[in-house]
């Protein structure tokens, strides 16, 4: 059974291209699959493989500048979640597009999963879900504010338009694995907010650490791999992925009349042309043929 490891680290990387070449060689030799993003602000990725392979990958990543304290959040997958290894250089490891935000230098206060419930129950604390709208639709924390953003880079504009309505009280933010909410705390601090918190390790750490009968989480958590979503204890969730628009779909979405596996869903049926749908239909047919022959098609991951 493959092990899936999630990680990120804000650190100064002076030569991302050189790190990419070294990482591609080291991770390839270790035998892991998945994606590693490298930018001047740090590294971010999800890798899968055996415990031995991931151990070798972790040793290499911890040797990078500023990454000695890198942590992995691990879980098991029933099937191999990635088809190949990708190592990419990006302008940011999580795209906010706002100059002057420096998480390697200043972020909010980390809150452990076991203390998170006490914090977000406080009536003076504004709790904000920093994820995208399609992720929030699958599940969130009770009482959290949903900004309704399509992309993380929309968050700064949303905050500047709406932040004043929350006063200048404490703000607690969360995201899937910790990276977006950590960067968002750096942004809020740069905007003058005095007291900012974020969930250490994100929702995934919370779901793994907090017993379900004590949890304030409702629904599933979208993940960016072949599992699509997970629940408490990081058990596989019920969501599947629309191959056309990449949105996660709940069971009721799959039953919607506009859902055609591999072609369209209730959210994107009106967004694509007949020609697009014909192309997606042929791609889906090829994927099914490859699956029937015991081969892995290199198309989108997930079901739906």
What report would you give on this structure?
The strands form five sheets. The chain has a five-stranded mixed beta sheet with strand order 4-1-3-2-5, with helices on one face. It has a four-stranded parallel beta sheet with strand order 6-10-9-7. A two-stranded antiparallel sheet has the order 8-11. The protein is built from nine helices and 15 strands. It has three domains: 87 residues, Alpha-Beta Plaits, CATH 3.30.70; 111 residues, Rhodanese-like domain (Oxidized Rhodanese, domain 1); 53 residues, no CATH class. Helix 1 packs antiparallel against helix 2. Helix content is 30%, strand content 20%. Strand 12 and strand 13 form a beta hairpin. The longest helix is centred in the C-terminal third of the chain and has 19 residues. The radius of gyration is 20 Å and the shape is globular. It has 304 residues and is α/β, with parallel strands linked by helices. 40% of the residues are buried.
Distance between the termini: 23 Å
Provide the succession of SSEs. EHEEHEEEHEHEHEHEHEEEEEHH
CATH topology value of the largest domain? Oxidized Rhodanese, domain 1
Q: What characterizes the major β-sheet?
A: 5 strands, mixed
* Tally of strands: 15
Round the Cα radius of gyration to an integer and report it: 20 Å
**Share in helix:** 25-40%
How would you sum up the global shape?
A: globular
CATH architectural name of the largest domain: 3-Layer(aba) Sandwich
Count up the helices: 9
Under CATH at level 1, the class of the largest domain stands as: Alpha Beta
How do the strands line up in the largest sheet? Answer: 4-1-3-2-5
Which structural category do the helix and sheet elements fall into? Answer: alpha/beta
Low-pLDDT runs: 297-304
| Mean pLDDT level | 92
Q: For the record, what is the CATH homologous superfamily label of the largest domain?
A: Rhodanese-like domain
């Amino acid at each position: 059974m493959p092990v899936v490891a999630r990680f990120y680290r804000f650190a100064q990387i002076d030569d991302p291209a050189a790190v990419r070449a070294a990482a591609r060689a080291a991770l390839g030799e270790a035998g892991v699959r998945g994606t590693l993003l490298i930018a001047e602000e740090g590294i971010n990725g999800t890798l899968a493989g055996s415990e031995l392979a991931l151990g070798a990958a972790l040793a290499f990543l911890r040797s990078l500048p500023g990454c000695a304290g890198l942590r992995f959040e691990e879980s098991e997958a029933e099937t191999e979640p990635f088809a190949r290894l990708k190592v990419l250089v990006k302008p940011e490891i999580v795209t906010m597009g706002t100059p002057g935000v420096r998480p390697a230098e200043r972020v909010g206060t980390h809150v452990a999963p076991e203390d998170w419930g006490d914090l977000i129950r406080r009536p003076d604390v504004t709790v904000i879900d920093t994820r995208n709208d399609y992720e929030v639709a699958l599940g969130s924390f009770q009482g959290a504010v949903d900004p309704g953003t399509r992309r993380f880079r929309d968050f700064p504009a949303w905050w500047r338009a709406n932040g004043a309505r929350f006063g200048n009280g404490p703000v607690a933010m969360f995201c899937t694995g910790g990276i977006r909410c950590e960067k968002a705390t750096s942004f809020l601090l740069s905007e003058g907010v005095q007291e900012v918190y974020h969930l250490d390790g994100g929702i995934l750490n919370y779901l793994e650490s907090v017993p379900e009968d004590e949890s304030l989480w409702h629904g599933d958590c979208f993940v960016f791999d072949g599992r699509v979503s997970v629940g408490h204890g990081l058990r596989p969730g019920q969501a599947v992925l629309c191959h056309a628009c990449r949105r996660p779909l709940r069971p009721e979405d799959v039953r919607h009349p506009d859902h055609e596996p591999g072609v369209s869903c209730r959210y994107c049926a009106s967004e694509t042309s007949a020609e697009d749908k014909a192309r997606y239909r042929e791609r889906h047919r090829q994927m099914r043929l490859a699956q029937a022959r015991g081969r892995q098609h290199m198309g989108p991951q997930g079901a739906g």
